[in-house]
Design a protein that fits this description.
Helix content: 40-55%
Shape: globular
Order of helices and strands: HHEHHEHEHEHEHEEEHHHEHEEEH
Strand order of the largest sheet: 2-8-7-6-5-3-4
Mean pLDDT: 94
Length: 396
């Protein structure tokens, strides 16, 4: 005789903090674009911040050689000694800043680095200042971890960067525990000056706040090089990644540089969360530092795309954009054309075949009138996108 089916009185509740995590809209746009392509439609992709160039050949060759040896296993939780040494040397070579290899933590992309840093530094409920507009995953990761993102609106008066005045004002309203900046920034492309970074670092020291600097777009600047926060404050927490400059998004490997007192705490977290970052990705990351010539050639393509778009977009009525100092984004104000960026982007995708990202992903308060375009593809794709959007706008 079969046992009677047990019907629960009620389904278990979902975690409230997880339910508060908003979707990453750019990924939804990518899914919608893929659906159009499956139906046979043509889409120019300007939505995702992902290099279209393949990982440089020398990096792939290093990983291939390691794979041929056959033994692909765990590494130390903090990363292989050789990769940590190479990352530390990079700071001396690129910035003239001495970093001990013991302070380097290899992470599963920058995303894994943020999770480790946030858990190591902040008590539940802690308030962390971020910019609006800013990278949406900051907000969502903080919420998922039971922390409180404090979105501080920034604008042209501060070149879309946080300042000591803005930080101190937010801290007076209710105490902060940390500050997170990004330079070059997503979505704005703005690069903070060395003086601006030093001012934020000094403010954080004065107020007793953790300072976290997202530097994943370092290497991708078009006028002046970016400055690491470690040049201003050796106790800053730096997050970086091989994803953008080195075209390694799918390898999921990045790193942290942290104060010595955080190393063991983060090591324990990493041991339990992932044991270690994949070995092949670490081999590839170490080889990446010797792929500069290939990476600079790819960057030259971004620079050509940028030059074209800065001239061509105003000609089709999309000339209200922020400084494009670095990264590979243009953040546009479309207020003259629409106050609904979601609807604007949906129409551009469905009617013009160009995938772009609504500003609501980056700025919950003001993003209804902004959009982000990624120029990480080819020049031909940028030209086709402008042609399609221009024709679409004439028909509106």
């Amino acid at each position: 005789m079969s046992k009677p089916l047990i019907v629960p009185a009620a389904l278990p509740a979902l975690a409230e903090r997880a339910e508060r995590v908003a979707p990453f809209i750019v990924m939804d746009v990518m899914n919608q674009a893929a659906a159009i392509e499956r139906r046979g439609g043509s889409v120019v992709h300007m939505e995702v911040g992902q290099p279209s160039a393949p990982t440089p050949a020398s990096i792939r060759a290093a990983a291939s050689r390691a794979l041929e040896h056959g033994r692909i296993g765990y590494t130390q939780a903090l990363g292989t000694d050789s990769l940590r040494d190479r990352i530390a040397r990079h700071y001396q070579d690129a910035y003239g800043v001495a970093v001990a290899a013991e302070r380097v933590v290899v992470t599963t992309g920058s995303s894994g680095g943020f999770i480790l840093a946030f858990l190591a530094c902040f008590q539940p409920g802690a308030r962390i200042a971020i910019t609006a507009p800013g990278y949406p995953a900051y907000r969502n990761i903080l919420i998922a971890l039971g922390l409180e993102p404090v979105a501080i609106e920034v604008g042209p008066e501060t070149r879309f960067a946080l300042t000591p005045d803005l930080i101190e004002r937010a801290h007076r309203e209710k105490p902060l525990a940390g500050v997170l900046t990004m330079s070059p920034a997503n979505p704005t492309g703005v690069v903070m000056t060395p003086e601006a970074i030093a001012d934020v670092a000094a403010c954080c020291r004065k107020l007793g706040l953790w300072y976290i600097s997202d530097e994943i777009y370092h290497g991708l600047t078009y006028e002046t090089p970016a400055t690491t926060a470690l040049a201003a404050d050796p106790d800053a927490i730096v997050v970086n990644s091989f994803s953008k400059y080195y075209c390694m998004t799918g390898w999921r490997v990045g790193w942290l540089v942290v104060p010595q007192r955080l190393v063991r705490t983060i090591e324990r977290l990493q041991q339990n969360f992932s044991i270690s970052v994949p070995y092949l990705s670490q081999v590839a990351g170490e080889a990446a530092f010797d792929a500069t010539a290939e990476c600079e050639a790819i960057k030259a393509g971004y620079a050509a795309n940028r030059s074209f778009l800065l001239k061509a977009l105003p000609e089709i009525g999309l000339g209200d954009f922020l400084p494009v100092d670095g990264a590979f984004y243009i953040y546009l104000d479309i207020g003259r054309h629409s106050n609904d960026s979601m609807a604007f982007c949906r129409s551009v995708l469905e009617e013009a075949g160009v995938a772009i990202t609504p500003g609501l992903d980056f700025d919950e308060a003001r993003g209804a009138r902004t959009i982000r375009l990624s120029f990480a593809g080819s020049l031909g794709e940028c030209e086709e996108a402008v042609t399609r959007i221009g024709a679409w706008m004439k028909k509106r």
